[in-house]
Amino acid sequence: MRLRHIEVFQAIRETGSVSGAAQLLHVSQPAVTKVLQHAEQQLGFPLFLRVRGKLQPTPEALELEREVAKVSESLQGVRRLAQSLRNLPEHRLRVGATPAMALSLLPSVIREWTDRYPRSSCELATLHSRELVQSLLMRELDLALTLQPSEHPGLRALPIASGPLIALAPRGHWREEQLGRPLPLAELAGEPMIGLSASDPLRARLDGHLGMLEPPPRIRIAVQTYALARTLVEAGAGLALVDPFTAQGADDRLTAQRPLSPTVKVTLYALSRCDETPPHTQALLLEILVRHAERQLESWKPVIGR
User: Fold this and answer.
1) What range does the record give for the signal peptide (predicted)?
2) Which residues have C-beta within 8 Å of that of residue 66, sequence separation ≥ 6?
């Protein structure tokens, strides 16, 4: 099937008629009929049968539809990429980040960056790690901040800063004398916890540490973002392990924080495309990011060193 065949096939499936497909594609009905007949002639079997005045897909058409959907999705990606390339403006930096980074780290960084470049603009997006990678490849973003390194050959991952994984609990969960001290990993045995969803890449790493405990912690609530885990802890729903940047934004009136012992570190990465030399405005943003990230992590060094 040619791309035009696929386009007409999908338009008929969506509208249920040749006339509806013609209106959707902004062409004449004879043109749609001609393309459909040509597709069926090449395939060697009919795609639609007329039943009570409506076009019904044949069993062969339904089998094809699953593969046609994949092609259509790829075409949408091509269109998105072309749109990005056509509308790419100068002096604009497009930055994406996971919800945790967008809330805890980016505001102060972007404020300093815009003060330095008052004539430049910045577009911010909050996405999950997999969506950040896709948006970078589609050239919808210039830079992405995530706790997950990318192994895609078209992307580079620059480590920005590393910090300890933090146990975040509702205020009163630990005794006063325990606060300010690292939390032994063994104390999480059997603990009901708020955990990351099974689809999160960090979940497997955490399971490697927590799976050694007997009994292992019970994941009572699973979430997709550290930011949501923090909000649930603040609501008193349980204990969670979060990155240090998310922990920084927790309400001290509602929560208490302790790094794990032994230390489990997480790394913040800046992802960008390998085939491009970043503009100097992006290079400065990375410098600001490093400085602000290290500043936020300074408070944990004395505790970890105990």
Assistant:
1) none
2) none
Entry pTM: 0.67
Whether residue 177 sits in one domain with residue 113: no
* pLDDT given for residue 87 in this prediction: 47
Two tokens at 171? 């205020």
Q: Which two tokens stand for residue 220?
A: 């009572």
User: Residues 17-49: pLDDT tens digits?
Assistant: 888 888 888 889 899 899 889 988 888 888 888
Q: What CATH number has the domain bearing residue 35? A: 1.10.10.10
Residues 83 and 56 both lie in one domain? yes
Rounded CA gap, 134 and 77, in Å? 10
Residue with tokens 């980040």: 97
What residues contact residue 239 under an 8 Å CB cut-off, 6+ apart? 167, 168, 169, 170, 173, 188, 191, 192, 193, 194, 233
Residue pair 190/217 in contact by the 8 Å Cβ criterion: yes
